[in-house]
């Protein structure tokens, strides 16, 4: 008798290693269905991205067509081709660039002042019960006041010019940042603060290593909202309180019934607002790599 070979001992009769199914082949229908689902999701994402890029141009094309057919009154809705010529003229003579620069200087200074003050007050209110009892009632009571309503008061206090506009922007941003940051710090579990105190951490160490990092999502949401509010307040204040800037262009165009520069200024505002949102979200992704944020 011959001893059975090692191959016959390792494999049952009628089966070989060549015929052994792999895990991927065990459920071919399921694997195929999963692959089809992923391909379908990728195709949907590509179509959504394409639609996002094409939708502004589609809207402009419809606008152009309706204006040329006479369906839209070109006195109020001039065709985009005409607005392109107006924008080129404003770029050539430098009026658009000067207006953008003046508006953005006011906005950046006011936004930074309001954001810094809002962070300081938000941290103090969020971490100190005494400070919260003292300050939070005033924040809640004065927050609903329309910020434009205090613009005349600011003019009386600091005079005409850029100063009241910058202060108005700072006040508008301050409320949004301080209230949202207070809520973010208050949402942190108390046990986390207890760990910091047990480690003999100072107040500044607790702020820098616990409170601010944990409340960054609230802070950046507040900054995005405050950015949009700042543009609204800026343009409204420039209507009546500035001789330069995008708001001034819109106001003077209305007075002269010249809607071309008005549309160009409105488009510039929308582009600047979009870029500010992109910048804030990119900064948020940089500071919070662990957190997935929505893309613009």
Automatic annotation (TrEMBL):
Keywords annotated in UniProt: Cell membrane, Membrane, Transmembrane, Transmembrane helix, Transport
Keyword Transmembrane annotated: yes
GO cellular component, one term: plasma membrane
Keyword Transmembrane helix among record annotations: yes
InterPro entries (alphabetical): MetI-like (IPR000515), MetI-like_sf (IPR035906)
ABC transmembrane type-1 domain: residues covered: 92-284
Segments passing through the bilayer: 104-131, 138-159, 165-186, 207-240, 260-282
SUPFAM superfamilies: MetI-like (SSF161098)
Major localization class: membrane
CDD domains in the record: TM_PBP2
Any Pfam family matching the protein: BPD_transp_1
Topology of this chain in the membrane: Multi-pass membrane protein
Name of this protein: Aliphatic sulfonates transport permease protein SsuC
Provenance organism: Pigmentiphaga humi
Gene: ssuC_3
């Amino acid at each position: 008798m011959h001893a059975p070979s090692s191959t016959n001992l390792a494999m049952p009769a009628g089966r070989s290693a060549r015929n052994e199914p792999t895990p991927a082949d065990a459920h071919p229908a399921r694997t195929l269905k999963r692959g089809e689902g992923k391909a379908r999701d990728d195709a949907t994402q590509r179509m959504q991205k394409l639609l996002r890029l094409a939708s502004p141009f589609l809207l402009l094309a419809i606008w152009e067509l309706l204006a040329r057919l006479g369906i839209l009154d070109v006195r109020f809705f001039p065709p985009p081709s005409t607005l392109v010529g107006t924008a080129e003229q404003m770029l050539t003579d430098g009026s658009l660039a000067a207006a953008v620069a003046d508006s953005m200087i006011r906005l950046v200074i006011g936004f930074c002042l309001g954001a810094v003050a809002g962070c300081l007050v938000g941290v103090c209110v969020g971490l100190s019960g005494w400070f919260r009892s003292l300050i939070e009632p005033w924040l809640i009571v004065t927050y609903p006041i329309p910020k434009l309503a205090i613009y005349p008061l600011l003019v009386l206090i600091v005079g005409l010019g850029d100063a009241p506009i910058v202060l108005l922007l700072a006040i508008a941003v301050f409320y949004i940042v301080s209230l949202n940051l207070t809520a973010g710090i208050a949402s942190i579990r108390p046990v986390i603060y207890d760990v910091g105190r047990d480690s003999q951490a100072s107040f500044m160490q607790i702020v820098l290593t616990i409170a601010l990092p944990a409340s960054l999502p609230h802070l950046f949401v507040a900054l995005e909202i405050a950015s949009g509010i700042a543009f609204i307040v800026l343009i409204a204040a420039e209507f009546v309180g500035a001789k330069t800037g995008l708001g001034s262009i819109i106001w003077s165009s209305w007075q002269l019934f010249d809607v071309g520069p008005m549309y160009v200024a409105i488009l510039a505002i929308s582009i600047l607002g979009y870029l500010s949102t992109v910048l804030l979200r990119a900064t948020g992704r940089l500071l919070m790599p662990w957190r997935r944020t929505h893309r613009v």
